[in-house]
């Protein structure tokens, strides 16, 4: 499930693939952007804001004409429950082993070739050599970061090359946005709230309402505590998920942080013992930072293979690893969370809807 740490990693991948490159063509598959085209613009930055992904684009190349919409734009997307961006190599023109196609080929040869097939490996090395000596080669290669919801895709999958046209192939109906540069194709599968807005209006139209960004360079613990405390009647479990209070926490971290701090999810913010709120938020901040560069999200340390990655998340019905009581599953109302409108245009941030989410907690050690 995408949370602040997955968004951070997705942005890192997109940054390495796109930043500084010119978009040669774009393809938006949402009605509101059906006629939009950002080709000719350069990707100037890829920025995570809480759980939002902002891809900033330069002004249009023919901006001199001052036609409307030529100013710098930001492409906004949100992963919500199951969205993901992936980066693919583009097929080298003419089939020649150019740099951009060499590396994944090499990876496959090494991984899949039967023992003793030295020829394949050495020719791969030759191609690799060509790549590294190629001037201007961009460092866009996926490095295991093409993952979804914290789980790592297989090596082969992570290095998928655009051997068939992904834009019309299997699964293409879930594509919402494609940005192509000379070297790569960045594809947004199932991403939500895809919008293009003038970069100068990012705050006003996209992310200005967000609380301090837990993985942002300007993280402000005191401000987050202040915003959380401003609504003392809110259940702590709900308050932590309200991106207006602080941005970046999703259901996994909510469940884990409340378990680790022995806090009942339904206790109101105002009735938490002195210092508890600070402890909870500090812990969340620490966990997200620990995981932001990890290939597998874990709240139990660097978990060796086969060991559980979480204390409570997804473990209802199993014994609590602290006290042995059976972990329970319940529902918490995440009303007042920000919900983008399906067409991404009409709903103001913070629209209230009842939104029941499944959480897991220990009835013994999180009793209050
Ligand atoms: Zn327990």
UniProtKB/TrEMBL annotation:
InterPro entries: FPG_cat (IPR012319), FPG_N (IPR035937), H2TH_FPG (IPR015886), Nei2_N (IPR044090), Ribosomal_uS13-like_H2TH (IPR010979), Znf_DNA_glyclase/AP_lyase (IPR000214). Keywords: DNA damage, DNA repair, DNA-binding, Endonuclease, Glycosidase, Hydrolase, Lyase, Metal-binding, Multifunctional enzyme, Nuclease, Zinc, Zinc-finger. Residues 311-367 form the FPG-type domain. Its EC number is 4.2.99.18. It comes from the Bacteria. GO terms for molecular function: class I DNA-(apurinic or apyrimidinic site) endonuclease activity; damaged DNA binding; oxidized pyrimidine nucleobase lesion DNA N-glycosylase activity; zinc ion binding. It holds the Pfam family Fapy_DNA_glyco. Residues 112-131 have a biased composition (Low complexity). Residues 2-111 form the Formamidopyrimidine-DNA glycosylase catalytic domain. Residues 88-161 are annotated as: Disordered. One of its GO terms (biological process) is base-excision repair. The keyword DNA-binding applies. Belongs to the FPG family. This is DNA-(apurinic or apyrimidinic site) lyase. The lineage of its organism: Bacteria, Bacillati, Actinomycetota, Actinomycetes, Micrococcales.
């Amino acid at each position: 499930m995408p949370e602040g740490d997955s968004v951070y990693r997705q942005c890192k991948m997109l940054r390495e693939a796109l930043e500084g490159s010119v978009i040669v063509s774009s393809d938006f598959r949402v009605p509101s952007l059906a006629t939009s085209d950002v080709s000719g613009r350069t990707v100037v930055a890829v920025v995570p804001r809480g759980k939002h992904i902002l891809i900033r684009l330069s002004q249009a190349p023919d901006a001199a004409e001052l036609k409307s919409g030529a100013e710098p734009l930001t492409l906004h997307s949100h992963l919500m429950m199951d969205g993901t961006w992936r980066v693919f190599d583009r097929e080298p023109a003419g089939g020649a082993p150019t740099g951009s196609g060499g590396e994944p080929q090499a990876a496959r040869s090494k991984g899949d070739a039967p023992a003793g097939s030295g020829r394949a490996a050495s020719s791969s090395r030759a191609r690799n050599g060509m790549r590294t000596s190629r001037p201007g080669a961009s460092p866009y290669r996926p490095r295991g970061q093409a993952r979804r919801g914290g789980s790592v895709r297989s090596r082969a999958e992570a290095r998928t090359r655009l051997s068939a046209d992904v834009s019309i192939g299997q699964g293409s109906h879930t594509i919402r946005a494609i940005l192509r540069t000379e070297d790569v194709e960045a594809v947004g599968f199932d991403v939500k709230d895809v919008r293009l807005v003038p970069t100068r209006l990012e705050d006003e139209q996209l992310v200005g309402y967000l609380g301090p960004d837990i993985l942002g360079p300007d993280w402000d613990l005191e401000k987050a505590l202040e915003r959380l405390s401003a609504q003392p009647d809110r259940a702590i479990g709900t308050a932590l998920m309200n991106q207006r209070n602080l941005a970046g926490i999703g259901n996994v971290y909510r469940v884990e942080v409340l378990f680790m701090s022995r806090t009942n999810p339904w206790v109101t913010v105002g009735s938490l013992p002195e210092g508890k709120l600070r402890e909870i938020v500090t812990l969340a901040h620490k966990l997200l930072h620990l995981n932001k560069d990890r290939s597998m999200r874990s709240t139990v340390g660097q978990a060796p293979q086969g060991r559980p990655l979480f204390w409570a998340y997804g473990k209802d019905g199993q014994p609590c690893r602290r006290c042995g009581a059976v972990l329970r599953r319940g529902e918490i109302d995440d009303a007042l969370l920000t919900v983008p409108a399906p067409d991404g245009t009409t709903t103001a941030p913070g629209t209230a809807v009842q939104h029941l989410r499944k959480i897991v907690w220990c009835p013994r050690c999180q009793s209050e």
